[in-house]
Amino acid sequence: MAEAENSESTSGGIFQEIFTSPLNLTLLSLCLFLLYKIFRGDKPAELGEVEKPLPKLKKRDFTIADLKPYDGVQNPRILMAVNGKVFDVTRGKKFYGPDGPYGVFAGKDASRGLATFCLEKDALKDEHDDLSDLNAMQRESLAEWEAQFTFKYDYIGKLLKPGEEPTEYTDDEEGKDKKAD
To answer: Which of 17, 34, 56, 128 is 20 to 30 A removed from 75 (C-alpha atoms)?
Structure first.
């Protein structure tokens, strides 16, 4: 019987300690909130109309002028060039769209901006940029960006230098790309 009274006074003492101390009340509230978040989870926001993905763009080469309309504003598709390669980054429009942190690169050759970590419009040129003035570290950074884009986004074609003729891509090459994905 003494054990029963002792356990009742101990459990009563714990509850009294928890509910009378402001620090313990705060910690208890935090624990309950975290448990609620873990078990309930965050429900995804209501999605209105889901945008249909755009059809895959046929492989072709681009000049700087050809690339310009693909900025997510004039055209819903977003293209950008990295180290002479053009990528369709439409599925990453949160980053490369008009309101995204890298939106300045949409419809442009982003090589210099990515290599130098500069997000200013002034850093991007409106004509061909041979990138010959980049140092070794910037070239390495650009190569890493190119590898990331190659892995993550669809390769559309190459960025043409002034006077360079576009490559004629056949449907067979399109099929090879699909098998490689």
So the answer is: 128
Q: Backbone dihedral region of 97: left (phi > 0), alpha (psi from -120 to 50 degrees) or beta?
A: beta
Instruction: Report yes or no on whether pTM surpasses 0.70.
Output: no
Residue 180 has pLDDT above 50, yes or no: no
* 22: its two tokens: 């402001």
Helix or strand holding residue 154 (H, E): strand 154-158
DSSP structural state of residue 63: -
Provide the residue count of the chain. Answer: 181
Beta strands in 33-152 (DSSP E): 79-82, 85-88
pLDDT tens for each residue of 77-108 = 999 999 999 999 999 889 899 888 989 999 99
